[in-house]
Design a protein that fits this description.
Number of domains: 2
Order of helices and strands: EHEEHEEHEEEEEEHEEEEEEEH
CATH topology of the largest domain: Tumour Suppressor Smad4
Radius of gyration: 20 Å
CATH architecture of the largest domain: Sandwich
CATH class of the largest domain: Mainly Beta
Number of helices: 5
CATH superfamily of the largest domain: Probable inorganic polyphosphate/atp-NAD kinase, domain 2
Strand content: 35-45%
Helix content: 10-25%
Shape: elongated
Distance between the termini: 52 Å
Largest sheet: 11 strands, antiparallel
C-alpha cells in the first residue's frame, strides 16, 4: 500500500472539476489515498493561480507537503503536466522516490499602528501601493535607511516571482537557486527634488527590507501577497525576508527554470 496521501485542489471551472473527478478515480484504482486535510502531495488542477491558492491553503503544513500542477488551459509557469496525462502522472506517483525541488518563499510581517502584527507568505511577490496619490515611504535594508521612496508603490519578489509582476515593472529575472529577494519600483518619481535608486535591487538571502510609510501621509494602502489582496488603512511598516521553509515541488519531470522562461516569453525559435 502506497503511504502517499493526495489532496486534489482545483479551480472552479467545469473542466477542472471534471479532471479532478477523473484523477480521483484513477488514484482510487491505484490504491493511493485521498486526504484533503493532511496530505503529503497536493495536486492542483487549473493554472498558476490555482497553484498559488493551494500553497496559501496548505501553508500550515508547507514543510511536509509537496506540490505538482496539472494545467487545463494555457501552459502554466508552475504546472508540469497536462490534463490528458493523468495516467502518466499517477504512474510517476506510484514510483515516487521523494524527488523534489524547493523554491524560496517570502516571509512578510505587517505591523499596524495599534501594535498588532499579521504574517503572510508569498511564492511570487508582495506589493504595497497607494490607492490614490503617491506612496511616500522610507525603505530600510536591514536596519539602515536606504532611500525615501515616492511613487505608485513597491514590489518585493522571490526568484520564481521575478517572472511575474516584477518583470512587468522592470525587474530582473532571477534563477531560484540564488534564493535571493528582489525589490522593484512601481512608477517612482525622480526629478531635481525627489530621488530614488531608480533600479531593481537583488538582495542576499540573509538581508531584509522594511517599507515604512511616512505617518504624515494618508495611510490608505493596498497590500498584496500573491493572490491575496488587503485594503489596510493602518499600516505602520511591512517587513520582508526569505522564509525558512521552502515550497517543494515534485521533480518527476520538473521543467528547468530557463526552459520555463523561454516557453513563457519567447516560444519556439527557428534555427537557421
Amino acid at each position: 500500500m502506497n503511504k502517499m496521501k493526495i489532496a486534489i485542489y482545483h479551480s472552479g471551472d467545469e473542466h477542472s472539476i471534471e479532471v479532478g473527478q477523473d484523477l480521483s478515480q484513477i488514484l482510487r484504482e491505484n490504491h493511493i489515498a485521498l486526504d484533503d486535510q493532511d496530505p503529503t502531495v497536493v495536486i492542483t488542477i487549473g493554472g498558476d493561480g490555482t497553484l498559488l491558492s493551494a500553497i496559501q491553503k496548505y501553508l500550515p503544513i508547507i514543510d511536509r507537503v509537496r506540490f505538482v500542477g496539472v494545467h487545463t488551459g494555457h501552459l502554466g509557469f508552475y504546472t508540469d503536466w497536462r490534463d490528458y496525462e493523468l495516467d502518466d502522472l499517477v504512474k510517476a506517483l506510484k514510483s515516487d522516490g521523494c524527488s523534489e525541488i524547493g523554491y524560496p518563499l517570502l516571509n512578510i510581517d505587517v505591523i499596524h499602528t495599534d501594535g498588532t502584527k499579521a504574517n503572510y507568505k508569498a511564492i511570487n511577490e508582495s506589493t504595497l501601493r497607494k490607492l490614490n496619490g503617491t506612496l511616500v515611504a522610507d525603505v530600510l535594508i536591514g536596519d539602515q535607511l536606504f532611500e525615501r521612496f515616492r511613487g505608485d508603490g513597491l514590489c518585493i519578489s522571490t526568484p520564481t516571482g521575478s517572472t511575474a509582476y516584477n518583470r512587468s515593472v522592470g525587474g530582473a529575472i532571477v534563477h531560484p537557486q540564488l534564493e535571493a529577494m528582489q525589490m522593484a519600483e512601481i512608477a517612482s518619481i525622480n526629478n531635481r527634488v525627489f530621488r530614488t535608486v531608480g533600479a531593481a535591487l537583488i538582495l542576499a538571502p540573509n538581508e531584509t527590507v522594511t517599507i515604512r510609510p511616512l505617518p504624515s501621509y494618508h495611510r490608505t494602502y493596498n497590500f498584496t501577497a500573491d493572490r491575496l489582496g488587503i485594503l489596510d488603512k493602518n499600516v505602520q511598516s511591512v517587513h520582508y525576508g526569505i522564509a525558512v521553509p521552502k515550497v517543494k515541488f515534485l521533480k518527476y519531470r520538473h521543467t528547468g527554470f530557463w526552459n520555463r522562461v523561454r516557453n513563457s516569453f519567447i516560444g519556439q525559435i527557428d534555427e537557421i
